[in-house]
Write a structure and sequence with these properties.
Layout lengths: L3 H4 L1 H5 L3 E8 L2 E10 L1 H7 L3 H4 L14 H12 L4 E8 L5 E12 L6 E10 L19 H11 L3 H17 L10 H18 L3 E8 L2 H8 L1 H18 L5 E4 L4 E7 L5 H13 L3 E4 L2 E4 L2 E7 L7 H17 L5 E3 L2 H23 L2 E10 L5 E12 L3 E3 L5 H7 L2 H18 L10 E4 L2 H5 L2 H7 L8 E6 L9 H12 L3 E7 L6 H7 L3 E4 L1 H4 L6 H16 L3 E4 L5 H9 L4 E2 L10 H10 L9 H13 L3
Parallel strand pairs: 11-12, 14-16, 16-17, 17-18, 18-19, 19-20, 20-21
Antiparallel strand pairs: 1-2, 1-5, 3-4, 4-5, 6-8, 6-11, 7-8, 9-10, 13-14, 13-21, 14-15
Helix pairs in contact: 9-10
């Protein structure tokens, strides 16, 4: 065994800098250094206390090339061991040549992922031939200048006609609201930038910017407020961008920037950081506020072989990757994203066919009264009977269904089958008090939804509508509030699902006034792990109690969790401890045998166990 005295000397005397950084679980390129030896700090010119906690970008200096920067990002995102020799800069800007060796590490207990970076300084390499800047003589504006000189010699009437034609052309290329270039001018400029890139052998980046939750501004505060946000966004982008950058508004809340790649690795990523940081602050409208963040996707002209459609498509793919990572982020396009995009397009087509064939169906998971043990309701959960892959859970298709706008149709199909099962079986006559259905925000806001529910054949007091917490993010729309009020007037219960997993808005919660709050399993599962976790859950239950909202604990998988949640004041329990999702026939069979969990450990659990072998497949 290595003596401790010897082991302790390794970080101090090691001739190579060693840094240990904890990475984000979903993005290996995002990390923070939590340990480094003296050599690592000295190489970068940092004091130890200032380096610790810093992002991995401290290694990316102004002297690092854009190509090297992108190579490092791609390897880190792929969790691959690699090494690279590159120029970079110390904290004070001093240029240095280093070799970085990156090794991925993982903690199998906590699931955390880490990077070990070995850093050694090397003799500086010759700079080599300098790349010439774009020469003015290659400018495409020379013919225009000559033409203007010629026009200047024409008569005054022709001059006025020329000025008028220029004004019309300028206005036809300008977005009337923001003053930026419009989509027409963007298309022309994209082709010109691609042609310039081919001729000059230089590359450029396409930065695609999309405002998150912009629709909430129009829905809650009106289109005038939305216009003010767009004008403010245009002003912010002008302030951030260089005079040589091209900026356009190409859609409702979509903006595009073209920027020439420089020798600095920070040119593009720095701009993306500035854009993300500039947004995300609450904006006030008529006494209310809403937070508008920005998601950014970046692609390079060379990665798409200078094909205009591919350049834009790749930036769009990177943009959606940013939104998947939680919005308010930026992402570079990588070939892996292209593969994922193709898979998602294929899945989108399959979902569309599945909707036509009505391949989606419900399964039911009982919800239990925490005090009496009685089954108080059953939640209808969607499943997909895929023709080749078997039964798929929502996690396999829900994100794509949301993006394509098909989630509302899937909700409708599942609800139709719930109604069909209720008519064909003894679901309610066997004593099931109520069934819960999940409804997307778009379908909930549809005026026809209430009619569908009331004409379903199921008594309104037998129904509970569950909406995701993100549905009322910041402030619920007028249409959403009206729909909820109509449902409540007809005796239908309203529940907020997965509470605590989104950007919780108490203002929205107060306006919706749900009957039930379903606390997400991510809070319930670690309830017994620490006193801190217990206090967090207790605070969520306290919010519900203060607002006179009943609480359902999701993800209850053990007797200990059931008892702990009950002791904290939870009224209802749901999870595998009581039952896995069941088919309608299995649920009816269960209700025919018994409807009570006595003391959570009764013979009821044994009855349910008989159904597990079948329901596990669901």
């Amino acid at each position: 065994m290595l003596p401790a005295q010897v082991f302790d000397q390794i970080p101090l005397l090691c001739p190579v800098g060693l840094g240990l950084a904890k990475a984000e679980p979903d993005d290996g390129a995002v990390m923070h250094f939590l340990w480094a030896n003296e050599r690592f700090c000295r190489t970068l010119g940092y004091r130890s206390e200032k380096l610790l906690g810093s992002r991995g970008t401290i290694l990316i200096g102004a002297n690092m090339s854009q190509a090297t920067h992108l190579y490092i990002i791609e390897r880190l995102m792929s969790w691959e061991e690699f090494s690279v020799s590159t120029p970079t800069n110390m904290q004070d800007g001093t240029p240095i040549q280093v070799e970085m060796c990156w090794t991925p590490l993982s903690d199998h207990v906590s699931g955390d992922r880490w990077w070990l970076c070995a850093l050694s300084e090397q003799p500086r390499l010759n700079d080599g031939p300098k790349v010439a800047n774009l020469q003015k003589e290659t400018s495409t504006y020379a013919p225009i200048v000559e033409l203007q000189r010629e026009i200047g010699r024409l008569k005054k009437d022709n001059q006025r006609l020329h000025n008028l034609s220029k004004m019309v052309a300028r206005e036809s290329n300008r977005d009337p609201l923001t003053g930026l270039s419009n989509r027409r001018h963007y298309g022309v400029q994209l082709r010109e930038w691609i042609e310039w890139s081919k001729v000059s052998s230089k590359d450029f980046a396409v930065i695609y910017v999309d405002l998150d939750h912009f629709k909430l501004v129009n829905d809650n505060f009106g289109h005038e407020a939305g216009d003010q946000v767009l004008i403010s966004t245009a002003e912010t982008l002008r302030e951030i961008c260089n005079p040589t950058d091209f900026i356009a508004r190409i859609g409702g809340d979509e903006f595009v920037i073209f920027r020439e790649l420089s020798q600095s690795a920070l040119s593009i990523s720095g701009l993306a950081d500035q854009i993300v940081e500039a947004f995300g602050k609450p904006q006030e409208f008529d006494g209310g506020s809403v937070t508008i963040s920005a998601s950014v996707g970046i692609s390079l002209g060379s990665l798409a072989d200078h094909d205009p459609e591919q350049v834009v498509s790749q930036a769009d793919i990177a943009l959606f990757k940013s939104k998947e990572n939680g919005r308010g982020h930026w992402s570079f396009f990588t070939p892996l994203m292209h593969t994922e995009s193709i898979e998602k397009k294929r899945l989108s087509a399959e979902i569309l066919v599945a909707c036509e064939r009505k391949e989606f169906f419900p399964v039911f998971q009982p919800v239990v009264d925490a005090l009496t043990g009685e089954i108080s309701s059953a939640e209808a959960l969607m499943r997909w009977q895929h023709p080749t892959r078997g039964v798929l859970p929502p996690s396999a298709f829900l994100d794509v269904a949301n993006r394509t706008g098909l989630i509302g149709r899937i909700d409708q199909i599942v609800f139709e089958k719930v109604c069909q099962f209720a008519k064909e079986t003894d679901l309610f006559t066997l004593g099931l008090p109520r069934v819960s259905i999940n409804v997307s925000s778009g379908r909930l806001s549809d005026p026809s939804f209430l009619h569908e529910v009331l004409s379903s054949g199921i008594e309104p007091n037998r129904l509970c509508v569950e909406i995701l917490e993100s549905t009322y993010l910041d402030r619920p729309t007028v249409a959403l509030r009206k729909s909820i009020e109509s449902l409540r007037r007809n005796g239908i219960l309203i529940a907020v699902d997965d509470f605590g997993m989104g950007h919780t808005s108490l203002q929205g919660l107060l306006q919706i006034e749900p009957d039930l709050m379903k606390v997400d399993r991510q809070f319930i599962k670690p309830l017994l792990d620490s006193e801190r976790n217990k206090l967090i859950v207790q605070s969520l239950f306290g919010i519900a109690e203060a607002l006179d909202i009943r609480v359902v604990a999701e993800g209850v998988e053990t007797e200990a969790l059931a008892m702990a949640a009950t002791e904290l004041g939870c009224e209802y329990l749901q999870g595998f401890h009581f039952s896995r999702p069941l088919s309608c026939e299995q649920l009816c069979s269960l209700l025919a045998k018994t409807r009570v969990f006595r003391g959570h450990k009764s013979a009821q659990a044994k009855i349910l166990a008989e159904d597990y072998s079948v329901s596990r497949k669901l």
